[in-house]
Amino acid sequence: MANIKELSKQKELFTGGHRACAGCGAVIVARQVLAAAGPNTVVVSATGCLEVVSTIFPYTAWNVPFLHSAFENAAATISGVEALYKSWVRQGKYDKKLNFIAFGGDGGTYDIGLQSLSGAMERGHNILYVCYNNEAYMNTGVQRSGATPKGADTTTAPVGKVKKGKEQYRKNLTEIMVAHGIPYAAQSVVGNWRDLTSKVEKALSIEGPKFINVFQPCRLGWGYKPELTCELGRLAVETCAWPLYEVVNGQYKITYKPKEKKAVSEWLNMQGRFRHLSKPENKSIVDDIQSHIDKSWEGLLKKEEVV
Amino acid sequence: MSKINVVARTGNEAMAEAMRQINPDVVAAYPITPATEIVQIFASYVSDGLVDTEFVPVESEHSAMSACIGSSAAGGRTMTGTSSQGLALMAEILYVASGLRLPIVLAEVNRALSSPINIHCDHSDTMMVRDAGWIQIFSENAQEAYDNMVQAVKIAETAALPTMVTTDGFIISHGMERIEIFEDKDVKDFVGPKKLGQYLLNLEKPITLGALDLQDYYFEHRRQLAEAMIDSKNIILDVAKTFKDKFGRAYGLFESYKLDDADRAIVVMGSTAGTAKVVADGLRAKGIKAGVLKLRVFRPFPKAEVAEALKNIKAVAVMDRSDTISGHEGPLALEVKAALFDSNIKKEVPDYIFGLGGREVRLEDIESVYKDLGDIIDGKSKDRVTYLGVRE
Questions:
Q1: How many structural domains is chain B composed of?
Q2: Which residues does A291 contact at the CB level (< 8 Å), separation at least 6?
Q3: Average of per-residue pLDDT across B288-304
Q4: Are residues A68 and A47 in contact, defined by beta-carbon separation less than 8 angstroms?
Q5: Count of CB atoms within 10 A of residue A110's CB?
Q6: B81, B188: one domain
Q7: By three-state DSSP, how is residue B273 classified?
Q8: Residue A211 carries which DSSP code?
Q9: Which of B218, B247, B276 delimits the end of a domain?
């Protein structure tokens, strides 16, 4: 695996000059994933923040072949690219080794793109799908998604006099991907470059469909100072709100275990979207979130024990 | 001239046969009645190793067109097939395909749209996506479906526009006909290898496709698309000429059937044109000068040519196998009338909306249309829109 010195010397495959917000985590994901993947990579992106900020015509931040089609079809689109590659290799028309990577936000992955993703994974294309998961529809202005955590204030599940933000837990997409029986599924985070790049390298070394769910703090949607993006990512891991693990051919491995699990309130309190939860009358919601995290973490530890 | 083999084929079989001979790099498709067989037959070609194609059996038509976009953008010759709800589900992505100027070829079997659900023929599905930036070619029978598919690849790749070839659900798709097919090598020669311009798998020159256009570029790119559609008319004619030179059968933007001396004519698309020709022949035997304009190419719409062909005909009716549900008229009538108006030709052109959901169109129905045209010639006025063959 390349160390950070080596990575920093590589040609930038995702360049600066794009229009992302200061402190944007999505572009960190793109840059680190491409740094790990290398130049022989074809990228497809779903509609969303990443595509919008990086490809304003006639400019592009992508130094690798890049295709954007629509919102809900990144997985199907990369399937077609990979199918053509296979066809050409079989016909002797192409001989380079390529990586096929699709990027989608949580809206384009957990929600509107879930069918397309599921189909592509089931068909077994040799692709890596990376979800940059910022837990809401950020590009359209912070609407709740299937990835939005309970209690978060979003513009379509706003905190009001009666309702206290999103009332449902987020769905567990990583487990849905594991249930597809794919050879590699993992969770990673913005703020731990080594974890992300090593998972990308590992995923790309495996033939077949791969999925990495990258937790990505969004300074605009989450309401924090731009310089705290990586810190918020790491704190999500330290509180076990976002565990780092991978599932290789069904075998779970937690890739980072906090020495001492921090209270989730520490992480919640740093974010504007959870501001209302610091009020005493909302303490039960925080307790609920904490107990849900505890249970999920315990469950994950048990899964790891099963060989 | 190429050697010809006479075979019995349904429309679906004929289209699948053309696809086998074309041997595309990728086919991504999803089953839907009455187009299922095209995909099914093609899948058996793949399983038997008769083609080099990578077949992607996607989980929806939306993903079918999305995968086609991936393959075509990557540089591959790419085809699919669908019908009705499938085409409707693809609609969003059809626009992306044309906007990206990808020469995907789609075998479309015309079928009614829900609701009520119905699996039989009308043209609602194809008409729904008539402004999607796709070339649209209609077929009268299985022979034309086959010939049109062979030509479509060349048309699409020369025009850099996606192209759909349509047949009529069940009437053509499942009707067995005598057709003439060509030798594999002759089709291969005719189609030729795909020319690669900019393509995704070219690592020497990485491109960004599908970028965000704002106020400063979107309009220019849409204008280029419009221009490509205008230009495609001559490409379609050029390909038809090459096709005739090689295979002997003549195609144009439309077929003028006994129009030269006609005093009355019906404009119609698809399988009904065959029925209309039979009726016209019957009327001609009685001394009535009836003709048919069978439109083959709906997009690009050949407005000047259609107007020219109709200008000397006293009475013209349009038969529309779909409706716009607009309080106005059917889609074909609107186009024909606009074409006539643009050429300063003033005529009363009644529109007959017929055959929705596979409702049989009988000889007597078409005879009644010609009879109405006779009344118009005699100075009587007719309803602007008639729903032909409906109970009301």
A1: 2
A2: none
A3: 98
A4: yes
A5: 24
A6: yes
A7: helix
A8: E
A9: B247
Domain A4-305 class? alpha beta
B200 plus B261 within the same structural domain: no
Please report, for chain A, the start and end positions of each structural domain, with discontinuous segments joined by +: 4-305
Q: Taking residues B100-122, report their average pLDDT.
A: 98
Range of the domain at B304: 254-388
Residues B57 and B187 occupy one common structural domain = yes
pLDDT at A1 over 80: no
> Do B57 and B140 fall into the same domain?
yes
Q: Does residue B265 share a domain with residue B226?
A: no
C-alpha dihedral, B209 to B214 to B218 to B219, nearest 10°? -170
pLDDT score of A30: 98
Contacts of B74 in chain A (CB under 8 A): 42, 67, 80-81, 84-85
pTM of the full predicted structure? 0.98
- Cβ-contact B82, B92 below 8 angstroms: no
Tens-digit pLDDT profile for residues B51-66: 999 999 999 999 999 9
List the one residue out of A189, A198, A187 whose CA is nearest residue A4: A198
Residues on chain B touching A96 (C-beta within 8 angstroms):
203
A98 φ, ψ to 5°?
A: -125, 150
Instruction: Assess contact for A48 and A107: CB atoms under 8 A.
Output: yes
Q: Which of B52, B67, B211 sits opposite A77 (nearest CB)?
A: B67
Q: What is the CATH number of the domain that holds B196?
A: 3.40.50.970
- Provide the ipTM: 0.97
Which chain B residue has the Cα nearest residue A67? B209
B87 and B222 in a single domain? The answer is yes
Mutation choice for B interface testing from A84, A115, A116 by most B CBs within 10 A:
A84
| pLDDT score of A305 more than 80 | yes
Question: What is the chain B residue with the closest CA to A60?
Answer: B208
Q: Per-residue pLDDT for A217 more than 90?
A: yes
Give the amino acid at A101. Answer: I
